[in-house]
Amino acid sequence: MRSGKIGLSVLICLLAVCSTSLGSKLPMVFAASQVLAQNNTDRKAEAEKVMQQGRDQLQTSQFTAALQSWQQALLIYREIKDRQGEGKTLLNLGLASHFLGDYHKAIEYYHQSLPILREIKDSKTEGIALYNFGNTYDSLGDYHKAIEYHQQSLKIAQKIKDREGEGAVFGGLGNAYYSLGDYPKAIEYHQKHLKIAQEIKYRQGEGAAFSNLGSIYNDLGDYPKAIEYHEQYLKIAQEIKYRLGERQALGNLGVVYHSLGNYLKAIEYYQQSLEIAQEIQDPQGEAQSLGNIGSAYLALRDYPKAIKYEQQRLKISQ
């Protein structure tokens, strides 16, 4: 059984709340324009409030709610013709769709956002879009295309000296090479990601690097090292209250103990992972945990329980 690579540092597009002061001595002839400007300012503040709501929801793994919030924000940005807001919101909609497992919809949103970001010359967010493209193609199994997009993103991050973005892209490249079975190259990139995350004190990125390194060492059969890395990720996820990361770490620890033949301990970790997936309404994680529990019971030759959990997994997957 192979432990899963995880989503990297979540690069959510941030929009600063901008206020516009209106002059009090404008001639009366401009009153209509003044009212329109004020309305646009109010609407922009409303959109940015909804954007922040979506970011908060994503961080607590409420992916459907985040998607709905950002769809609402998109309508407002388009209404007031705010191209920057539109481009960044489209990118965030792609991210939410990715987390919901709708990869083709995610790519559709990224394709809509990229021309806008290039039009307004927002290099940093363009780099995030390319990075997200890479992650989504990785999830679709097109690893060479994933590497292509990550390399484009890396070029931008290094040019503009975006250290967080650079670290995240190194992690994305590590994931793609891991999927291709090139473990030395995967380890090299994840170590680069880890180093940058620790330098800039980005705990979520640090945790993602630990987790991905743990998955590689599990595949290589170095189980003590795999456990060490996954436990470090679990500790970070719990410290920063990142419930999705906590679920992933528990699930991956279960996978390592499964590989060691300690099926009862594996089930213990899988059950904890399942409880969090249900709590945060993460259907992908729930299905994965149920399947892992079923596999463990199969290894224990407890066929009725194995069938029960696999049927539950099948129902969610469908």
Structure description:
The chain is built from 14 helices and no strands. By secondary structure, it is mainly α. Helix 6 packs antiparallel against helix 7, helix 9 packs parallel to helix 11 and helix 11 packs parallel to helix 13. The protein is globular and about 70 Å long.
Please, how many helices?
A: 14
Indicate the structural class.
mainly alpha
N-to-C SSE string, H for helix and E for strand: HHHHHHHHHHHHHH
On the 0-100 scale, what is the average pLDDT?
A: 89
The unreliable regions are 12-31
What value does the Rg take, in angstroms? Answer: 22 Å
How does the major sheet shape up? none
What share of residues are in beta strands?
under 5%
- Strand tally: 0
Task: Report the span from N to C terminus.
Answer: 22 Å
Q: Based on CA inertia axes, which overall geometry fits? A: globular
Helix fraction bin: over 70%
Please summarize what this structure is.
The chain is mainly alpha-helical. The protein has helices at 31-59, 63-79, 83-99, 103-119, 123-139, 143-159, 163-179, 183-199, 203-219, 223-239, 243-259, 263-279, 283-299, 303-317.
Q: Could you give the topology of this structure?
A:
Blueprint: H1 31-59, H2 63-79, H3 83-99, H4 103-119, H5 123-139, H6 143-159, H7 163-179, H8 183-199, H9 203-219, H10 223-239, H11 243-259, H12 263-279, H13 283-299, H14 303-317
Helix pairs in contact: 1-2, 2-3, 3-4, 3-5, 4-5, 5-6, 5-7, 6-7, 7-8, 7-9, 8-9, 9-10, 9-11, 10-11, 11-12, 11-13, 12-13, 13-14
Features:
318 residues; mainly alpha; 14 helices; globular
